[in-house]
Amino acid sequence: MFSDGYIDQFGGDKRKKFKSMNFKKLLLSVQGESMDSQRQTLEQTYEQWRGPHEQIDDIIVLGVRS
């Protein structure tokens, strides 16, 4: 479960939105990792994407381990 804050963040070389397709690919790429590793990857990817741009929205990503 997640809010739209991550996918709506502006960043990258052309200061565009991250978009839901990129977020979906990111989630699929980390699904086999530990929860802590997933969190770290999501945080690092977000910070790299955002770069020097201001955060424009609140972000929540909720993971559930089964």
Question: Can you count the helices?
Answer: 2
Q: How many strands, what sense, and barrel or not for the largest sheet?
A: 2 strands, antiparallel
Write down the domain tally: 1
CA gyration radius, whole angstroms? 12 Å
In the sheet with the most strands, the strands line up as: 1-2
Report what the structure shows.
The chain is mostly helical. The chain has one domain (1-66). Helices cover 41% and strands 6% of the residues. It contains two helices and two strands, in the order ββαα. It has helices at residues 20-30, 35-50, and strands at 10-11, 16-17. A two-stranded antiparallel ribbon has the order 1-2. β1 (10-11) and β2 form a beta hairpin. The chain is globular, with a radius of gyration of 12 Å. The two termini are 14 Å apart. The mean pLDDT is 94.
Q: Which keywords apply here?
A:
2 helices, 66 residues, mainly alpha, 6% strand
Quick structural overview:
With about 70 residues, the protein is mainly alpha-helical. It is built from two helices and two strands, in the order ββαα. A two-stranded antiparallel sheet has the order 1-2.
List the helices and strands and how they pair.
Blueprint: E1 10-11, E2 16-17, H1 20-30, H2 35-50
Antiparallel strand pairs: 1-2
